[in-house]
Each structure stands twice: as structure tokens, then as C-alpha cells.
Amino acid sequence: MKRIVLADDSKTARAIVRRCLEIAGCGDATFVEAANGQEALVLLKEQRTDLFVTDLVMPDMDGREVLSRMAASPRLIAIPTIVVTSLANPGIDKELGAMESCIQIAKPVNPGIMAEALERVWGIWQRLGTDLVPGRFLEALDESIASTFEEMVFGEVQRCPEEEIPPAIEDWLWARVRIRVPAGASFMIACPPAMVSTFSALLHDLEESDVDEATRNDTLAEIANVAAGRCLTETLPAGTTYLLGVPSTGLGIPPDEEPPACVGWYKVNQTHPLRASFDVTDSP
Q1: CA spacing 20 to 30 A to 196: which of 29, 85, 170, 257?
Q2: C-alpha to C-alpha distances, 130 to 213, 261, 269, 284, nearest whole angstrom
Q3: Are 102 and 120 in contact (CB under 8 A)?
Q4: Rounded-to-integer distance, Cα 75 and Cα 256, Å
């Protein structure tokens, strides 16, 4: 079930937007409401959000400040956002330029306008979502991992047999790339830190014992960045523009990770285990 955050200081305005969203196809969503930007920011941070609909002019913290803070957050910037405001004009589009997943529509809104807005922020993944498993996404995942490791670290990648899949990855290093345009998807690689140290040493001409944490994280982030781009090139329709976010890294399991829609388990050079995943996190 999708989670939608609505922010407007007017209870009536929130009710109108909610009704339009329900008629436009979001009738089974969970709606959470905020009366100002400060409340909205708390709601956006506390749980995964599939859509944020906000006014710009609100007390305590206005919509511009909320969007500015979202743009500075690697996690929040990926949330598809619709600005519904009586101030809608081309100048505001430029002001909101840092939020590639953000569009604006003018009040008064109706279900038809809202449906068009949803298509703009969700459309690509909605059209491709039925093929997510086991269609083109899984095939693209295989191809992107194999080609990236072969070309970057001269690694041979094979599918990992089910009986050899590691039982736990809590101590693994991960790198995740959120797709900012079209918004609503993410790509992640996870593997043992020792494996990354091996490849870091190769790339930087170091002894493995000399590879520090920063170099190791940077290596996996760049591998994930390249693989994510290749995966998108294989899955999105020809000519589609996409934009990747800055990769984030960490140890263990990301605190906000949910079971991904598409997962591949691999072995690099017949020994190193690797998990790659592609998830349409914010599709309708």
C-alpha cells in the first residue's frame, strides 16, 4: 500500500487534493496530513513515502524550505513531489529546479489534472512495473553487473547457485544509487568488505592492507554508479532521460531498506559473493 503525505495549512485544501488523488487512482493509499512544512518534514523522514503533495505558502516552515531540505537529502530528494499552489508560474519551476522529481500544478485542482500529474511523476515505472520480475529488469541486472565488474576490475561474474547464497549479510558493505529522474527507483550492490578491499587495491595499485575505509567505500560507490547507469540504459525506453543521485554507502543493512522487487545473487571470480538489487520504490 502506498503512503502519501499531504501538506497544506488549509484542511479544506487537503481534503480536495485527497479526493482528487483517490479519484485519479490512489483510492487504496494511506494518506498522512500535515498543516505546515515542519510537520511535513517529520512525516517524510519517519517512514518511506511514495508521494508528497504540498502547498508552498504555509506557516512555521513554508513549502520552499521543505523542498530545499529535501533537495539536500540523498533519501528525500528521490520522493516524487507535486506542488499544488495558487502561485503556480514558470518562475517557480526554475526555483524548484534542484528537485528533478518535483512538478507543480495550479489551484484549483481536479481529478483529471491530478491524473496527468501522477503520470508525469510515476509514469515510467507504472508502465514498466508489470515487467519487473522476471522480465527485463532481472536480465538487465545480470548484464549490468557482469559487464561492470569485467571492465572495471577484470572480474568474471556468474550467477550464484541458490544453495550457495549466504544466509546473512549484516556485516556486508553496501552502496546504493537512487534514481532521481525518472524518480522512484534505486539500485544497490552489497558484498563482503574484504572483496571490496581486493578490488580497491587493484584499482589504486595498493596492498590490500593499505586500503582504508574511505577508498573502499569510494570504490564500491563508483562500481554501483556505473552498474546502475547500465541497468537503466537496458530497462528504460530508448531516448528516456535519466539522472542518478550521489551514491551512499554503509555497513550492514540500510535502515530504510524493504525487500527489493528484483534481486540477483552472484559470484565474482568464482569465490566472492555479491548481491545486487533494483527496486521501483515509489511506483503507484
Answers
A1: 257
A2: 39, 11, 33, 12
A3: no
A4: 9
Torsion of CA 10, 11, 16, 19, to 10 degrees: 150
Element (H, E) at 124: helix 111-128
The one-character DSSP state at 163 is: G
Q: Tens of pLDDT along 210-245?
A: 999 999 999 999 999 999 999 888 887 777 778 888
Residue 184: all three cell numbers together: 522512484
pTM for the full model? 0.63
User: What residues form DSSP beta bridges with 266?
Assistant: 159, 274
Cα separation, 234 vs 89, in Å, equals 36
Cell numbers 596492498 correspond to 207
Please check whether residue 130 is in contact with residue 117, taking contact to mean a CB–CB distance below 8 angstroms: no
Cite the beta strand spans of the chain per DSSP E.
Answer: 3-7, 30-34, 51-54, 81-85, 102-106, 157-159, 173-181, 185-191, 243-244, 248-251, 262-268, 272-279
